[in-house]
Amino acid sequence: MHRFRPTTSDNGPEGTSLALAEAIKRDYAMGYVFEAVAKAHFEGDFHIANLGEVDRPTTMIGSIDFTKRHGVRLPGGFAGSRPAPPFEVLASPCHLTAALCKDYFSDRSA
Asked: How confident is the model at residue 75 (pLDDT cuts 50, 70, 90)?
C-alpha cells in the first residue's frame, strides 16, 4: 500500500470516508492506471501528484533524466516521443513532453 498523508483534517465520519477513498484510489492508480510507471514513481524518478484524485489528473512532474532515457508514452493513442539523443538536443523532447502532458491532462479534465 502506498503511504500518504490525508488531504483532509476532519477526524469525523466524513473525514474517515474521504481518507479511505483516497487510499483506495491511490492503490488503484499505482496498481492499474500507472502500472507501467509505478516503479519510477516509487524510486523518485518522477512524481505523479494527487494520486488520490486519479479520476481527475491535473499534474505530472518528471525529471529531465527520465525523459532523456525513456521518452514519453501516453495511453489512449496520444502522441509521444522516443528517448532523446545526445544532451544537446534534449530541449526539444522536454518541450514536447510538456506540451503532450498539458494536452493529455486538459483533454481528460474536460
From this structure: low
Rg of the Cα trace of the chain?
Answer: 16
Place of cell 527520465: 66
What is the per-residue pLDDT across 51-71, written as a single tens digit (0 to 9) for each? 888 887 666 666 777 777 777
* SS3 per residue for the chain: CCCCCCCCCCCCHHHHHHHHHHHHHHHHHHHHHCHHHHHHHHHCCEEECCHHHCCCCCCEEECHHHHHHHCECCCCCCCCECCCCCHHHCHHHHHHHHHHHHHHHHHHHC
pTM: 0.44
Alpha-carbon span 70 to 79, nearest angstrom:
14
Output the nine-digit C-alpha cell for 77. 493513442
